[in-house]
Amino acid sequence: MSKLEKIKQQVVECTKCDLCKTRTNSVPGKGNFKSDVIFVGEAPGRNEDKNGEPFVGAAGKRLSSALEEIGVTRDSVYITNVVKCRPPNNRVPNTTERSTCVDYLNQEIAIIEPEIICILGNTAFNSILGGSEITKYRGKVVRKDNQLYFLTVHPAATIYNQELIKVLNGDIAKLFYTIAQLKEGKKVTVDIEYSS
Ligand code: SF4
Question: Domain coordinates of the chain in residue numbers?
């Protein structure tokens, strides 16, 4: 069993926080373990809870469309969430749930060693970098502890605000342009430096 499969198994069986009591299925990360990028959202929603897979609902379709626009398949990237079980009624996961679950995300990152981590939305931004106001900072490249991050809106936000579809698609295109530069060994512009 690979290291990622072990984490997946741990997530499936996890009872470390109260969200295990209300979930149908926990939702481990999924995708290419050799991916250059990990996409990280907030938490599973209704469809993800039902299926046990990340980003399979309407928001997931928006993310898939943004990737397809630039010729990237979902299978070629790795997609996960900060919190692996659905909070009741899709409420924002609380700080205890986030800090308890984030250990799994940290393990996923340590195994995959992505060139860049794409943070989707405010909750992931806050959980991973302590940030807020993603709409203000989206489209930017951040470096913290020698790890690069890219910030964009959560795909679910494009369902309620159609104008954000263009924003998400543009950001994803910029993300993959940045990845291409990194792969070619070129210097990329870091917009924000975080210190831990
Ligand atoms: S949310 Fe995370 S820590 Fe809580 S039960 Fe699910 S997998 Fe475990």
Answer: 3-194
CATH of domain 3-194: 3.40.470.10
Pocket test for ligand 1, best of 7, 17, 96, 98 (most atoms within 8 A of CB): 17
pTM exceeds cut of 0.85:
yes
User: 132 alpha carbon to ligand 1 midpoint, in Å?
Assistant: 23
The rounded distance, in Å, linking the Cα atoms of 118 and 37 is 7
CA of 160 to the centre of ligand 1 (A): 28
Say if residue 195's pLDDT is above 90: no
State how far the Cα of 81 lies from the Cα of 178, in Å rounded to an integer: 22
Average pLDDT over residues 104-116: 97
Q: pLDDT per residue over 52-62, tens digit each?
A: 999 999 999 99
